[in-house]
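Last lecture ended with a question: if I hand you only a sequence, what can you say about the shape of the protein? Today we answer it with a concrete record. The protein is Serine aminopeptidase S33 domain-containing protein. Below, first the input exactly as provided, then the predicted structure, then a couple of comments.
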Amino acid sequence: PNRCVEDVKCAIDWIARRHDENYDNYGDNGSNNETLTAAESSIAMSTKPALLGWSQGALVAQMYAQKHGPSTLSDLVLFGTIYDPRVIYPRKPLFDESGRLISGGKDAVKPPAPEVVNTVAASLEDFTLPGTICDEAALEFSSVALAVDTVKAAWDELHEFNVCNPALVHVPTLVIVGAQDPYVQWDAQRELFERLGHDDKSMCVLPACDHAAHILKARKMFIRSVVGFLLRKDGF
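The predicted structure:
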């Protein structure tokens, strides 16, 4: 998870650099760049990107927001998050049976993660609600998924998720979830929302949707919910 957070930071930093380069050239007459006025700086500050995370990715997005959020993000969207304060991920053993350090330090020699071959059933496991995807679309989806991801991604060092604390999220946040998502705990969703550290927050429950609410039949409802939150201050 910490590595994922740093990857997100690299992407956000890249977006910021692109924005700054484009914005520094604002009003350039070809000779030299003009200094930003206070109004222009305000515009630049208001165009920070939003960050959306789905499922375990929502935990990563929450970790990023806790660490870097207010200075780099305009909004946070936690979609189908599996956050549950009752789940405490155990640390991996520091040493293997031979006494070799395998976790917890820069000199650790981590064993390679076991490879789990992706399957048709595994590629479709998020479509749990009958009718959310037709047979033809399911076959097409799985064929593309298997072509792109022949091996399932292996998570490591899951104990790093234990730092997730809604009270440390100080950016405007949308919590969005399918009403029939089998992977979420509703008391955990309510606690997450209530404990968020910013008073600009919304929760949206998508009816007749499971974990993959952003795909196929429910995608328009999902998109409208997210866009409506992001544009809430623009009179959308």
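Comments.
1. Residues 115-153 form one domain.
2. Residues 62 and 126 are 21 Å apart (CA to CA).
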